[in-house]
Amino acid sequence: METITKLFKNNIRQYGMMIALVVIMILFEVLTGGLLLKPINITNLILQNSYILVLAIGMVLVIITGHIDLSVGSIAAFVGAVAAIMMVDWQLPAWIAVIAALLVGALIGAWQGFWVAYVRIPAFIVTLAGMLLFRGLTMIVLEGQSISPFPGGFQKISSGFLPDFSATGYNLVSIIVGIALTVWFIVNEIRERRSQLKYGFEVPSQALFILKLIVVAAVINLFTFMLASYAGIPNILVLLFILIVVYSFVMNRTIMGRHVYALGGNEKAAGLSGVKTKKVTFWVFVNMGVLAAISGLIFAARLNAATPRAGTNFELDAIAACFIGGASASGGIGTVFGAIIGGLVMGVLNNGMSLIGLGIDWQQGIKGLVLLLAVAFDIYNKNKRSV
Fold this sequence. Notes:
The protein is mainly alpha-helical and 387 residues long. The chain contains 16 helices and no strands.
């Protein structure tokens, strides 16, 4: 019991948000009469929140460095508009348009990163200007009208599912993927535990470790079974999984990740330690531009149209997801996994409140209150640890 308490205290924000997510899901499952966790609604949750989760992955890196990006919603809208012109008006192949759109996102990120990193203009001002600039450019490019429809292949980014070869009524590929993920997780955890023991790090007891493996394995297989009972694994979930794994690895296991944390913790100390702070800041914004472009493509594919109002408030949802998931407003603290948990909290709140019939006014108020409480909880824990 003492080990569990210590483990929880050391990771109170991350575990606290995970517990909050579970509680919110149980609450809305009861209030909606079992609708929330139906397989079709679980799939809708993934599709509805995928573009925000992609933005949250990039936004948490920006926040860890001590900056903020208010322009991502406008960039997503602009990239979606550019992609629509290339695919619908110019009739270019989808793969060419996608690559070009990602390059546009990278160039926009480089443009903003230059002003923040090298000219030293605060990111708040640069990205606020970017929000206005690229929203205006979106309206100019689209001439105030929507462009549609996209080619069928492009639409499958958001609406397609992994193919199946079973005729049993359950998507066999989803079940196989669940089993494969379980094996991968168990092997990875055992390898990590052995490595920690080898170098003398403190690890949880064997009983607690086995309990963790059982619980996570059960959650993975239950989740994939629920997807299998509807239409299978959405294509967008595969993309999200790849992004989460890659960015978690970069932030936890690479020099670049350590430099990002060091920059956010103390820029002057990081510079004196040999971290090229301007270069790190520049590339973090380039990365954010690319992920904003991916988000814009996902949203356009789901809507099957590029519209002038696309991406509205995306930046606020992404920022809220990061702070709810444990990122610190002062920089240096945050995780990719935490940002995903925060995004899921926001997504479940949106979905659950819509299912029970709450109006948009109540939804906005409740989400604002949740964000405020999450940040207050973070500050309370910091003050408690510093005493």
